[in-house]
Amino acid sequence: MSANNDIIEVHICMGTAGVASGGYEVMDAFAAEFEKEGISAVLKERNCKVKATGCRGLCARDVLVDIHLPGMGPITYEHVTPEMVPSIVQEHIGAGQVVDKWAAKKDYYDFYKLQKRYVLKDCGKVDPEDIDDYISLGGYDAIKKVLKEMTPEQVIDEVKKSGLRGRGGGGFPTGMKWGFCRASKGDLKYLICNADEGDPGAFMDRSIIEGNPHVVIEGMLIAAYAIGCKEGYIYCRAEYPLAIKRVKKALRVAEERGFLGKNILGTDFEFHLHLKEGAGAFVCGEETALIASIEGERGMPRSRPPFPAVKGLWAKPTNVNNVETFANLPLIILDGADYYASMGTEKSKGTKIFALSGKVKSTGLVEVPMGITIRQLIFDVGGGIAKKRKFKAVQLGGPSGGCIPEHLLDTPIDYDSLIAAGAMMGSGGVVVMDETNCMVNVAHFFLTFTQRESCGKCIPCRIGTKTMLDILKRITTGEGREGDIETLQDLANDIKIASLCGLGQTAPNPVLTTIKYFRHEYEAHIKDKKCPARECSELIEFVVADDRCKKCGICFKVCPVGAITWEKGKVAYIDKSKCVKCRECIVNCPFNAID
Amino acid sequence: MVNVKIDGVDVQVEPNSTILEAAEKAGVHIPILCHDKVLKPFGACRVCLVEVKNNPKLMTACTTPVMDNMEITTKNDKLAKIRKTLIELLLINHPLDCPVCDKGGECTLQDLTYEFGVSQVRFDPKPNDTPVDHTNPFIERDIDRCVLCGRCVRICDEVVNIQAISFQNRGTDTIIGTSFNQPWNCEFCGQCMSVCPVGSLNNRVYLFKNRPWNLQKTESICGLCSCGCSILIDSEDNEVFRIKEDYDLGVNKGLLCVKGRFGFELINNVKREKNSKIKVGEEFKNISIEDAISTASKKLAEIKSKYGSDSIGVVVSSRLTNEEAFLARKLAKDVIGTPYIFSSETDDAMPEGTYADIENADDITVLNIDVTESNPVLGFFIRMTARKNEGGLRVFYPKMTALKRVASEFYTGKPSELLGLINDFADAVEGKSNRCSEAASKLLAANSPVLVFNPYSKADLAVVSRIKKAQPKVKLIPCKLKNNSQGIVDMGCATGADLVDGLGRDKIKALVVLGENIAVNPGYVNLVGVLSKLEFILSTDPYFTETSAISDLYIPVATFAEKSGTFTNFEGRVQTVNPAIDKGLISDFDLLVSLINSLGGKAPDSVDAAQELIRKEISNYSGVDFNGGVVEYPYAVKDVNARYEIVGSGSYELYRCSLRFHSGTFTTWSPDLTKVYKEATIEINPEDAADLNLKDGDLVTVKAGETMKKFYVEIEKYNPRGVVSIPMNYKGTEAILAKGEYQRVELIKHA
Ligand SMILES: Cc1cc2nc3c(=O)[nH]c(=O)nc-3n(C[C@H](O)[C@H](O)[C@H](O)COP(=O)(O)O)c2cc1C
Ligand code: SF4
Ligand code: SF4
Ligand code: SF4
Ligand code: FES
User: Model-level pTM?
Assistant: First the structure.
């Protein structure tokens, strides 16, 4: 939706990052500016609307502000502060002159070029705290259509036909899952929205909820109608206060407007939706642990079968879907399954939102059609590797995903191809690594997270991941032994097969893929006691190589403890007795001259 | 029924069975570590993983339900490898102190290590080293040996419903403990310990005393209350080392209470008398058992010929076996010819409901009894059922009891109010009142209701008989007190003859007291003076009690662990008691045989022969299996006409309560139980205590009419304001409690 013709719209990004970067201050500055005397001369009879919108993905550049002038495409400003506001109002809004020095450049628009903003299309446009704004953009039309024109079975068929697969990680076909739950016997069934989002670095669900909470509610209504659920929960990560605040408000308003509760939209469809704050553990995102947590039990996964569709929350049939999955549903209903299924690959339809991070130029939230390659995602959308360094690997699927090397960069992004490559879609975390990343250390890093988050219920995950971590620690500190690689692989496989829940079943993935694709780095650590990427400080000699040193003296300047001596025109020298192995010199030496 | 194939063996099982259950039926062994039959499937240890045909994932046998035509493989190289890895992982942190671990020899971890052939561990050992916890008086907690199977946590939650212990922390930091690391204070039932597969929770009464392979196991029945729990008595050299449970034996599903599990040192107690004693002047003199028996029979014959056969009374304890009670009656009725057989039992209420009825109940009423305290294992069954049914449990009792976590309706209050409410409830069930009508209509609408009550309270019985008439479907469960309370009624020892009355009429000149400590029984408290005037008292008891002290002849006898026979529990179930040890003492049975024979009768010469006679003479025992059969009774409750009465005056209302740590004075001979609860205390609501400026452990005098008695104070937050309670059957309580079930008293604080 573009802005109304004679209204000037100012959209201010007010996601968590936007707020944190001073979104409210910028908003106040605009409001103050529009109150100023003589402003009518600037506005020239045009109305002006300042709107808080949700996250659009480029949080590193917040506060982002879009100016929609009638008859002119929107212009985006990056890193806006209150001090910049008077100039933007005077020059841009008043004189129609874009303030070039602050306006977003090509890389900003490139970031969006290959993206397909579909699920996120209204995030960044709609005011998340205003249900009328959502409705004006076609909100709640899908549930109206469903209630008026479709039987529950037809809804399930439509979702099946769309090919939608769960966005919570597993990629289970959503329509099929609903079918199971619908078929379960019982008057009382529960619907749960999984908004626990515990992957470090992932924030797609947060952005959707903060940016457009009503779309999630609408998606849940469609599911509740299709499955026959009367009660529902949004299980939201407690560390997302803004999301919680907005969900609370949205639930209240939606109920006031008759979208929730009894006799929804005048029909006899009934759905009560509650918010439940998460228990603060990654594993609580696992559906059976989540259910236990809602029941007030310790958030520990339970064995399946019985599956939640048969025996879930309080032993009643329960359907759990992810936030993004729900957000897809109004679109499928309104645009039709055929249109939806035209996006993506044969077995993975629609779009997927990723959180790009690590060593890429443009980090942030991106939404791309299924099926583009990993290369396109990193190099075209993300703008390639920062600091002119070389790409080394990319971790796909969050901490328990897999590490993909360069030669697999042309793998299309779809559920099955990623699994075949040893990674997974997961929740959509993408961490890019360059030549300065040690792959053993990377494996250690990710496993540290999953190991710490193990709930401790089952032996393979509880003790197995800790044992793997101990071995990795040994390797990165030069204590690696012959046979460690085989032991790691062997143990990893047993943990994957024997663990109770998805956490343990996937936690070894980063280790297995880094061994598979970067075995030589492991061997260098174990046999030569060397870290080729020079990241493992115990394995670095901290000696300047005469032949490579260009005598620039940068290392001398960055060393925090003065352990380096250097004179103009001379090779630098590191005094090992003073060196604290902080690696500042290594990171900063432009010529990789320190071994 | 569904068909499954396990390792090539075809079996048919119930549709909802797990793979593990099916395997058991097929005779295929699947290793387990975290699973326990009494608990819900958990699936934590992964040791039971099996392969299911056409399923790419391995499945845990303990949690996975079978499906028709499932084909299961329980043994192959892949599974063997995983199982081995799991054990290797557990052994990384395990202390490997097996030589000094009490569990050695019966430890599941040891067994699995051996079964899976783990001869070395690929990973570097990092044994834990945390101090053990001794805050629980009966259970040692050594978290270093814990394998986190969660059985203890689950049984305390699912069965005991107390949640005294739980998982603390996460991941590798997970331990089993109490919230906020508080001292481990709970019901001390030891269920957690009984299911621990390793040496993490240990029996402190048994700690370091023996090794399991030295112990001889004897199946028997616990002799401490009427629940009729099957036990295993582990003994060596005529000493009992521990009492263990066995899920597959009897009716109690492996559940025991603190008394049954930890009270066994009363059997070994060194204070047990070994010699018979005769009173000479004011002193007791040891005599041989032969002399004791002949003195007894001579004395009895003498008195009989001097004053007539009805000058002798026989008092029968509810702890005797059926066979002993049968002979006691024989001695009295047929040999001596006296009508005076006394016991503290009545035949007002007879068994009807069983444990199975509790499990299948859709509505349970617990009427005015703290069943967890009086009959702990019955209490567990009630809790388990209420938990499973998510309600359908209604309790009437002055204070909240341990049933509070699972009860859907709990009526508490001052006796003066509560008793009225109980009457209202009975009225409502009879359709005569609108008060309590909601509860009443639930009971009336139920398909398999159960009513649990105190058969020793006439007023309660009156209510019960009314309810039974109005709702005949209700199965009655009388909470009989002692291990053979029911059996001695069945053997004809509850004649209705009243000892007070009998002695009062001066007719009786001699008493034979078999195992009953009449001197501290509230019912007989006024008799002590009368007793001293009798010409002859013969008493038997495993211990030299207050009653022994006022006897002329005392004969020490065997405890339940030393004799054969049968007990009949509150369900009317007859179960066999087997001797585990021999302390060189005769049993009441042996004594009765000698007395009968020497007084001119003819006694059966063995327990078996006595059982033959019982079958012949006691009609409802004739077809019953003495190894677990249930006796049928002509009625469940008599028409009793009685009303609640609160006697005395004063500002506090007092009621009698039960105590699970003890069963009469008998268990006070256990040094371990008395460590936790020794003397009767008075329980007082905190606000009342504050008004009287009383703290826990202070002394307070209870004044009931003219009777004054001092008690230590125990603050009990669940007692309502203005209500105090004193436990029954403790030394020192009899004078007060004899006055009535409910009374008004004054409390006087000491300076
Ligand atoms: C350790 C672990 C953490 C998980 N965390 C999340 C989460 O934060 N959000 C989520 O939607 N799904 C999460 N899942 C997946 C859920 O178990 C479940 O599959 C998902 O919510 C189903 O929704 P979908 O069908 O829409 O994907 C997690 C799974 C595991 C094993
Ligand atoms: S795999 Fe890990 S997180 Fe999952 S149940 Fe087992 S210990 Fe808990
Ligand atoms: S002794 Fe009984 S009440 Fe105490 S923790 Fe163990 S199971 Fe629970
Ligand atoms: S203490 Fe024993 S029963 Fe409890 S979790 Fe540990 S090993 Fe299992
Ligand atoms: S016995 Fe089945 S998982 Fe532990």
Answer: 0.92
